[in-house]
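Researcher: Quick test of sequence recovery. Tokens follow.
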């Protein structure tokens, strides 16, 4: 039976498994998908949230609360689409490749890699989404053409080039000393800022949180319900 008790047990086990130092790398595909599925159940049944939080082990309660809150910020920011977007869903670079790009940007501009990963997650699910945003932003880090002209070097659709450009942009707008200001410049919404900070904080607490987020799939909230866009989708 799928109810609050089920979700609490599922999230408790999954969130603990994500953070165990001896969890094999190959387990994170399953852990990430189960984690995402559990949070989607809570989004569909927000009345379950108090009971779920009360039933969780104390060691993961704050992480679950943070992930719930981050998802709520993004849902409030994006709203529901009238139709499916004109995107292609592709395989992202491997996790160690992305971590290398984030680390290179961190070394170049002083931006903690966790913030870059959180932005990459929110913008395109770590590069799975290929296509324009509703505002015309493009690439895995979603740059507007004029912004890319100022901060980009190379190809806006290349994950390495886009991540390094994001580091330059954030540094030019106050990072790393004022991350709130820098993230707000990236997307001028406090809902967005809060979501980035919440996801980044989970990766500061445990770098293994990245491996779970990396495996989250692309879902779109439409006016008729939530739709999974699997790898290979072309709209």
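Model:
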């Amino acid at each position: 039976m799928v109810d609050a008790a089920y979700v609490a047990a599922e999230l408790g086990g999954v969130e603990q498994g994500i953070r165990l130092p001896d969890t094999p790398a190959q387990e994170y595909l399953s852990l990430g998908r189960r984690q995402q599925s559990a949070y989607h159940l809570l989004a569909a049944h927000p009345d379950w949230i108090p009971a779920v939080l009360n039933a969780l082990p104390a060691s993961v309660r704050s992480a679950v609360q943070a992930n719930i809150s981050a998802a709520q910020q993004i849902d409030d920011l994006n709203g529901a689409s009238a139709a499916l977007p004109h995107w292609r869903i592709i395989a992202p670079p491997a996790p160690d490749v992305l971590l290398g790009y984030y680390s290179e940007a961190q070394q170049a501009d002083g931006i903690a890699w966790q913030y870059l990963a959180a932005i990459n997650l929110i913008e395109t699910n770590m590069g799975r989404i290929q296509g324009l945003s509703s505002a015309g932003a493009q690439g895995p880090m979603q740059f507007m053409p004029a912004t890319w002209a100022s901060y980009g070097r190379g190809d806006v659709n290349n994950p390495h080039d886009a991540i390094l450009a994001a580091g330059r942009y954030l540094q030019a707008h106050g990072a790393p000393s004022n991350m709130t200001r820098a993230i707000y410049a990236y997307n001028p919404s406090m809902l967005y800022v809060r979501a980035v900070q919440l996801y980044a904080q989970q990766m500061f607490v445990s770098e293994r949180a990245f491996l779970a987020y990396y495996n989250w799939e692309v879902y779109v909230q439409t006016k008729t319900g939530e739709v999974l866009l699997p790898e290979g989708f072309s709209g």
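The chain has a mean pLDDT of 97.
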